[in-house]
Each structure stands twice: as C-alpha cells, then as structure tokens.
C-alpha cells in the first residue's frame, strides 16, 4: 500500500533489509520474526509500535549491554545465534550499505567476492542508512532494532519509485518489491524565509515597537498638558468682565495742548491692563462745538473731534488695546438725531441694500503713515455728504462704520427717547442685523447695549412686543446703582429688584452692566462720607453678578473739581471730569507737560496711581476671571436662571455680599460704608475663611467672624470654607 508523502517533508524509501541464507541444519528461519507484534495484520497497521520499556531501561544500542538490558528475555537464544552467523554483503548484516567504520578495502572485497550490485542511495536515504549502520556496528548482539529493520514486517508498503534498487540474496538479487517510506524534513535551503535578513528584521521590529511606544507616550503627555486646568462655564467677552469707562479729554494728553487725546489713551494701555480691565468704553469722542466743554452737543456720529485726533489716532488706540486683549465699546449718542431715525419697516432692508451700493463711505481699517491730513479731510467731507443724503439711517451707517474700524460693541445711548416711535422694533432689529453681519465666531461677536431706562420706559403688558425686542436683541443692559441716595438698605432693594425680577430670568436674555460713576453722574468720592469709600463702592459692584464698570479715576478716589468762589460756574456740568492723576507726589504731573495749563484744573484724589497697580482692584478682577462663583450671573437649571448671590446688611453702614456656585468655593465681601469703626459678631452666620484681599495686609490669614472689626471705608474679601 502506497503512503503519500507530506508536502513539507522529503519522502525516502528504506530498502528491504534481508539476511543471507543460513544453514538449514541449524533449524533457523531465513529471517527473524519480530516478537513484538502478534501477527502480520498488526504489523501492517502499526509496524513501529513496541511494548513500553520497563522502568529500568537501558538503550539497546549501548556498547556494553548489561545483563538486565531491556528486551533481553524477549529475544530467544536461537535468534541471537542466527543473527551472529549472518553472511551478507555488509559485514554487519545489511545489504548494500557501506559502513563508515569498516575499512575501505574490506568493503570492496566483499562486494567483489559476492558479485552483488553496489548500493547508491540518495543523499537523504544514505544519511539515514549510514546512521543505522554505524549504530549497528557497535552492537555485540542483536536487539529489537534489527527486528524493526526486517523486510518481512514492511511488505505491506509499496515500493518507492525514487529509491535506487539494491540486491538481496533472498529474492535472488532482484530489486525488493517493497520498501520503507520515511519522512525526512526538507533542507533549510528549500524555505525562502531562511534567506531573509533576520537580524535586520529583528532590529527594525524592535525599534519600530519602541518608536510606537514613545509616540504613544508623547501623545498622552500632550493631551494631558493641553487639558484645561479649569472646567469653568463659558461666557462671552462682555459677560462678567471688567469695563472701564473713559472720557478721553481728561485721561492723558499726548500732544501737550492741555487736553487729553486718543494717542495719550493708547499709550496708557499698560495701566488698564495692570488693573485687570478687559473692555474699554469710549465716551464722547465725536465732533462737537467747543469740545470738550460741550461734549454732549454732537454734530456727527462718524466724525472724531479734532481735539482728540483723527481716524489714524483712533485706529492706533484700537490696535493698542487689542494687543493687550482689551475690547473696545463705543458710545453712540442718539438723542441729537431722534427726529432723523424713524423709517418704514417695509423700506428698511431696501434702504440698507441701497446704502451699501451707493454709499460713498471710505472705511479706513488701518490708515498708513503716508496719509496726509488733506486726504483725511477729503474723506471726512465725503462721509458727511453721504450721511446728509441718507439722514434717515444715520445710526445704521454709524454702527456699520465703527464696526468696520475695529470697534467690538456699540452702546446705544439715549435709546429710551425712541421707545414711543412706531418703528422702534424695526430699528432695534435693523441694528442687531448690522452687528451680526460682523460676527466671526464665538470670540469675535459684536455686542449691543442700552440703558435700563429703556425697559423702565416701557409697560410690560402694553408694550410687551417692544420689551421682547429689547431683551432679544440687546446683549447688555446698563443699570446705574445709587448708593448715596438709597443707603445700604436701598441699595440691597435695588439690586434684588433687578436681578430677581422677571426681565432677566431667562438664560438667553441680556446680562446686567453695573455702573455707579459715569459721565452723567457726580463723583463717588465727593458724595460718600469718606473719600476711600469710592474704592469700596467699586469693589462692591465688582462682586455683584453681571458685568461691572469703573469710571476713570474712581479706583483712586478722584474727587470733583471744587469751585467755592464760583469762578468756573459756566462749566459746572464738567466738574466731575477733572484730569486723571498720574503721579503720587504731584497731582498735575503726568497728565500733560509741566507748564501747560489743562482744560480743567486738577482736583484731589484719595489714592495714587502708583498704588493702583497693586490695588485690591487687580486682585478682584483676577478673581472674576477665574471663579464662576463671581463672574457668573446666576445658576442655570432646567432652563431657569437662579440667583447665585445673597446680600445682607448689618445696621446702616455694613453691607455683606455672598457669592456661590455649585461645587465651588463661596466668596464674601464685607464693606463699611460709614464713617465710624464697626465691631460685629457674625459667627452665627459665618464661621471663618481665608482672606483673599483687604487693605490692612492680612491676605492669606484665616479670619473668624466672632469679633470682626471694620474701619471706615474698609473692604475685606474672604474665601469661605466649603
């Protein structure tokens, strides 16, 4: 029966092993019969199976067999004698095999004497046979290995065609009819992968894995490094940030003419940055007769007063502020142009489109240094003519013009005088449409704001559509707090009425813009019992939910101009606009050059600018940026805004504001607005906390409330225990 060879192996046929004839008188069989197999049928099924050797086993091929050698009892003495008398071509009993241990001459003599055909096996078979012959040559007596090589036990196997035949005396020198097919593994040369450069492959694989691991580690480190250190709620650039209202004519004089200008403002951006200001609100920069004394008599909404500079100077200010990441909001006074504003709702979009096509505006994003004054005057004249031709849309053109010149927001000042016009809603939507056309993403949205007087002038029921138009199209609502007239109790009522009222209850409604001092009010330091109480009022405002605003000079306690002899009574409406102090020793030094007479005399100030760089204002401003407990205007839950503050008053002078937010520390500000020192026990309300900012050098100390002392105008900000 033919046994097919495996594809991965070399098939080798071991020729039939036969023994030479033996003397018949000895009574021996011509070839030994294996005593390990019961019969021929068992041999054909599994010819190589033998009984398991005993425990004490010694290899049968050992040179000096011992008396207890395995299988010793299974081989009869007769078989041993028969094997010892074999006489075949090979001296050791194998036909046609050349024993490696036999001398060459003896091998040749045997072949020549018997006349047998010499055996030339293939390389694979020869190696097997030589191994078997060499092992058999050292045996002193036959063992079971001789039986395994007997041809009688392999007659059921077919003859392999690729093995050279050899002669045997038993079959008369004819080729054997059967042979043993052995499986021998292929040579390494037959496998292609054996020729590959495995050292290089291993090295390449190793460094590839190492590089991949290093890359993964780098990616993980980069992701960890870029993770936000804080998980604070998002807010827009005008929400919760610190505003700083400036009257440019009284801020800084750059050209030494005694009046502040835009260039001077642009060169003081470092001071605004040091205070933590994030938005500058420019108030009253437009052309007016006898500016700055009559700053409110505006003649044109697109012309800058020549006293302040030109468009090149304006662009300089905007660029300097933007470099410090400070946004710019511009006040547009509408009251002088109320009669020119109303238009038909049907004609609104048509007039806007026609204005964009026919307008002769020349928008200067960034004028170059080569532009001459004559060119600027020509462009200004063209803009005036264009405004006169389209006077019914003057505000729309002005908003579009200033937004193109880098302004980030517009304050529609005086909008409350327009609420009774039939086209009020159309105008609001039109101006909102203009600002949205300049939006370039979440961080570059344009903003609109107006005064709380607009909502106060409307009836919530009868004018519900107008109220919704204001709340849906405005981003900030300016609310002026009156601490002088109402006192601490009245101030608490005013804040609660605005914040907890229904007008600001929805998340999409405008935020509140708080202001205490402004261009339309008197100086805080001149109205409060003590001068440094103006700083306390500013800090109180900064701890309220919403967007706080500082009027220039209030952070240093700038006072109004005093005129006891009424020498300057004709400009009494400007007494709250004295020049800013830029020097600790000399009030007038720094605003303009020495020897130059300023447009208004200097007034007194409680503090100085040098101390202002490290004041409590900067600390609280930084706290507003980092803590949602302060900069957020409420807690949003289920599409409802809940207040995140609580105001308490102790007596007539002490005011306490607590700010809180879920899973964050609560903060507390305590202020003494009175003129007397106060000692209070508040341990029933609060236990203690860490001082974040104060005016007595206790920052970082732990403070308890069982005997709290507050001096006149003193402010303490505490981070409460969780």
From TrEMBL:
Entry's transmembrane regions: 204-225
Stretch forming the signal peptide: none
SMART domains: Aamy
Stretches with biased composition (Polar residues): 112-123
Keyword RNA-binding included in the entry's annotation: no
Biased composition (Low complexity): 124-137
Segments for region (Disordered): 99-137
SUPFAM superfamilies: (Trans)glycosidases (SSF51445)
GO BP term, example: carbohydrate metabolic process
Domain Glycosyl hydrolase family 13 catalytic, residue spans: 245-581
InterPro entries: GH (IPR017853), GH13_cat_dom (IPR006047)
Keywords: Membrane, Transmembrane, Transmembrane helix
Methyltransferase among keywords: no
UniProt-listed PANTHER family: ALPHA-AMYLASE FAMILY MEMBER, MALTASE 1-LIKE PROTEIN
Protein name, as recorded: Glycosyl hydrolase family 13 catalytic domain-containing protein
Organism of origin: Cryptotermes secundus
């Amino acid at each position: 029966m033919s046994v097919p060879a495996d594809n991965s192996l070399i098939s080798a046929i071991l020729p039939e092993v036969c023994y030479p004839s033996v003397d018949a008188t000895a009574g021996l069989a011509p070839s030994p019969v294996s005593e390990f197999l019961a019969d021929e049928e068992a041999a054909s099924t599994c010819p190589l199976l033998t009984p398991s050797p005993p425990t004490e086993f010694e290899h049968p091929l050992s040179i000096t067999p011992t008396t207890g050698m395995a299988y010793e009892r299974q081989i009869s003495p007769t078989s041993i004698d028969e094997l010892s008398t074999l006489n075949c071509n090979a001296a050791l009993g194998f036909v046609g095999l050349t024993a490696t241990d036999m001398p060459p001459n003896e091998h040749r003599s045997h072949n020549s004497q018997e006349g047998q055909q010499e055996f030339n096996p293939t390389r694979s078979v020869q190696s097997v046979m030589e191994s078997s012959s060499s092992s058999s040559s050292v045996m002193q007596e036959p063992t079971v290995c001789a039986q395994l090589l007997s041809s009688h036990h392999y007659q059921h196997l077919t003859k392999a065609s690729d093995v050279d035949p050899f002669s045997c005396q038993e079959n008369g020198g004819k080729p054997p009819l059967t042979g043993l097919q052995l499986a021998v593994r292929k040579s390494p040369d037959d496998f292609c992968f054996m020729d590959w450069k495995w050292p290089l492959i291993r090295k390449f694989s190793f460094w590839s894995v190492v590089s991949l691991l290093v890359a993964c580690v780098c990616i993980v480190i980069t992701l960890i490094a870029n993770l936000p250190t804080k998980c604070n709620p998002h807010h827009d650039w005008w929400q919760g940030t610190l505003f700083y209202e400036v009257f440019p004519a009284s801020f800084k004089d750059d050209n030494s003419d005694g009046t502040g200008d835009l260039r001077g403002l642009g060169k003081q951006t470092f001071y605004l940055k040091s205070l933590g200001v994030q938005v500058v609100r420019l108030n009253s920069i437009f052309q007016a007769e006898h500016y700055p004394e009559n700053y409110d008599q505006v003649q044109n909404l697109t012309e800058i007063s020549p006293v302040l500079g030109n468009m090149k100077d304006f662009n300089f200010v905007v660029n300097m502020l933007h470099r410090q990441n400070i946004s710019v909001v511009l006040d547009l006074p509408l009251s002088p142009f109320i009669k020119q504003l109303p238009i038909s709702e049907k004609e609104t979009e048509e007039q806007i489109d026609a204005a964009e096509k026919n307008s002769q505006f020349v928008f200067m994003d960034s004028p170059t240094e080569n532009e001459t004054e004559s060119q600027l005057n020509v462009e200004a004249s063209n803009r005036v003519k264009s405004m006169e031709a389209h006077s019914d849309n003057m505000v729309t053109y002005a908003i579009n013009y200033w937004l193109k010149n880098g302004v980030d927001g517009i304050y529609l000042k005086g909008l409350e005088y327009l609420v009774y016009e039939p086209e009020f809603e159309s105008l609001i939507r039109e101006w909102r449409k203009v600002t949205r056309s300049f939006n370039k993403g979440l961080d570059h949205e344009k903003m609109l704001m107006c005064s709380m007087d607009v909502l106060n002038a409307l009836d919530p029921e009868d004018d519900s559509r107008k109220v919704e138009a204001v709340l849906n199209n405005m981003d900030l609502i300016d609310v002026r707090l009156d601490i002088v007239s109402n006192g601490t109790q009245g101030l608490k009522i005013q804040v609660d009425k605005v914040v907890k009222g229904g007008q600001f209850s929805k998340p999409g409604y405008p935020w509140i813009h708080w202001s205490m001092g402004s261009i339309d009010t008197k100086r805080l330091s001149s109205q409060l019992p003590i001068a440094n109480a103006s700083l306390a009022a500013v800090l109180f405002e900064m701890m309220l939910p919403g967007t706080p605003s500082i009027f220039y000079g209030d952070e240093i306690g700038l006072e109004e101009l005093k005129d006891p002899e009424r020498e300057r009574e004709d400009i009494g409406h400007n007494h709250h606009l004295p020049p800013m102090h830029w020097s600790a020793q000399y009030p007038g030094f720094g605003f303009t050059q020495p020897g130059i007479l300023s447009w208004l005399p200097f007034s007194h100030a409680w503090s100085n600018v040098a101390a202002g760089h490290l004041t409590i204002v900067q600390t609280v401003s930084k706290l507003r940026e980092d803590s949602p407990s302060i900069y957020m205007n409420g807690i949003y839950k289920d599409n409802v805004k809940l207040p995140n503050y609580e105001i308490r008053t102790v007596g007539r002078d002490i005011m306490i504001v607590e700010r809180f937010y879920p899973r964050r520390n609560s903060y507390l500000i305590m202020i003494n607005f009175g003129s007397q020192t106060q000692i209070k026990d508040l341990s029933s309300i609060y236990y203690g906390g860490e001082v974040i900012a104060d005016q007595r050098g206790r920052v970082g100390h732990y403070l308890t409330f069982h005997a709290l002392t507050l001096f006149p105008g003193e402010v303490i900000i505490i981070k409460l225990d969780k």
